[in-house]
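dumping this here so i dont lose it
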């Protein structure tokens, strides 16, 4: 019958009061614990098996008792398997079998989350544990913990309080992408953000390049990463919106025309260029019954109604003077493409900028430059500020201040509850909200005023001072370029 012999633990350097003693267990009594963090590459290799056959398992494993009298190994399962194989060979040869040295953790019975966490700590630094196993174990262990244990575990792992959520999201990446993300220096949150936008072509390359720029500047911030991520999220939303519009057209059984191949004649024409046989204008409404009724999406994901074969369905082409396409036409088309790209980038930059303002407002002490800027606006009351205050729009201010349910926030109640030490921060939040409203339009980049540029350049300066935690986006930098000397 298998027995367990208790031996005092010889663990110099460990100072905990309740260090568990190790015992010698029959390997046949040991199973893989369900909370063992390693889920891939769990078999012992031949080198390990050969070593164990010769000298046995030297380092103690860690197990916890199971209800049926067996033990679950959450540390050292590969060593257990190697000893089981070695014992089977010894029995065949008539040689004595070996027991295995183990720490029996009675205190972990019923504590699945902490057990998996301890297994993760053990395996994470061992060669061969996959990034996927690490992520899955972080997710499962942190979910199944008390708040106190979760905080302690997060500090030990060097991750944030949302680590379980990030770990779950990051697992959407394939194994190769996970390895590249780890090799490139992405942390858990950044890996999850990559998974969020990975469907965009070149997303991984672009984010890794932004991460390298942040690393090369050596300030510890992630300003370049945040701006690139914002652009990718905007592209992701654009693609998602396009799919939504296409799905609606499909549901309505309206064909979507594909782009003509090179050298292929495109017989379709937009309805704006067509008339009925009597010369009346064609619209989406009066053309719906036509067998050629179809659509293409423009650059803003709006359907442009077409007839697939107007010559077969009795339509006439509206007479229009034909002009050869000139270089000026090409320039106008290029300018339009640039405007669309800049408009989209300006909207994408709102997220990182407002996140940084929120960070400033919630600091223990508001930076002096922000305080001076807010005081100047309050004393001079420029037009953009007075126009905004007339609108009584408090929601953005409440968001900056961290008020719960900002859309329903009561300004008077918020002001009454504001501590003296937070007054300067609240004033800056108020002024920043007005500035944000002033630059809300996508075309603001094309004609930035000096006051608008001053706000953006202030944030740029504060971001640099805050270890590079915020950078202006490319379109913002382009917009303020002509104002730098004047503001300086």
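and the seq i came up w/
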């Amino acid at each position: 019958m298998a027995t367990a012999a208790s031996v005092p633990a010889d663990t110099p350097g460990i100072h905990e009061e309740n260090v568990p003693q190790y015992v010698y267990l029959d390997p046949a009594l040991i199973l893989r614990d369900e909370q063992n963090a390693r889920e891939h590459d769990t078999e012992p290799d031949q080198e390990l098996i050969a070593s164990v056959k010769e000298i046995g398992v030297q380092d103690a494993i860690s197990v916890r008792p199971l209800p049926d009298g067996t033990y679950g190994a959450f540390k050292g399962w590969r060593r257990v398997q190697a000893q089981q194989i070695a014992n089977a060979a010894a029995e065949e040869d008539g040689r004595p079998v070996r027991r295995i040295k183990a720490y029996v953790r009675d205190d972990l019975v019923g504590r699945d989350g902490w057990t998996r966490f301890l297994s993760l700590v053990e395996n994470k630094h061992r060669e061969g544990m996959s990034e996927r196993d690490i992520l899955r174990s972080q997710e499962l262990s942190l979910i199944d913990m008390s708040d106190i244990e979760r905080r302690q575990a997060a500090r030990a792992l060097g991750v944030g309080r949302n680590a379980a959520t990030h770990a779950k999201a990051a697992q959407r990446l394939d194994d190769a992408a996970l390895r590249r993300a780890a090799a490139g220096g992405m942390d858990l949150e950044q890996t999850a953000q990559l998974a969020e936008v990975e469907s965009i072509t070149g997303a991984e390359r672009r984010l890794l390049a932004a991460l390298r720029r942040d690393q090369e500047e050596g300030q510890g911030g992630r300003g370049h990463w945040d701006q690139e991520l914002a652009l990718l999220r905007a592209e992701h939303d654009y693609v998602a919106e396009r799919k939504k519009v296409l799905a609606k057209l499909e549901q309505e059984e309206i064909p979507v025309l594909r782009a003509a191949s090179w050298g292929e004649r495109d017989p379709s024409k937009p309805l704006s260029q067509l008339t009925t046989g009597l010369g009346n204008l064609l619209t989406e409404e009066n053309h719906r019954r036509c067998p050629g009724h179809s659509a293409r999406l423009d650059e803003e994901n709006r359907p442009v109604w077409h007839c697939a074969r107007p010559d077969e369905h009795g339509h006439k082409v509206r007479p229009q003077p034909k002009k050869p396409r000139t270089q000026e036409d090409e320039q106008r088309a290029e300018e339009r493409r640039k405007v669309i790209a800049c408009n989209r980038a300006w909207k994408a930059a709102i997220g990182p900028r407002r996140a940084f303002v929120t960070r400033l407002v919630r600091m223990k002490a508001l930076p002096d430059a922000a305080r001076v800027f807010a005081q100047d606006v309050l004393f001079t009351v420029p037009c953009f500020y007075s126009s905004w205050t007339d609108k009584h729009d408090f929601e953005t201010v409440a968001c900056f201040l961290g008020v719960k349910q900002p859309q329903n926030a009561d300004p008077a109640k918020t002001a009454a509850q504001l501590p003296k030490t937070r007054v300067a921060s609240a004033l800056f939040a108020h002024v920043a909200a007005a500035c944000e409203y002033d630059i809300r339009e996508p075309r603001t980049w094309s004609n930035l005023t000096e006051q608008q540029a001053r706000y953006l350049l202030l944030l740029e300066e504060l971001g640099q001072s805050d270890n590079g935690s915020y950078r202006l986006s490319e379109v913002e930098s382009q917009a303020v370029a002509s104002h730098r000397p004047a503001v300086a």
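The radius of gyration is 32 Å.
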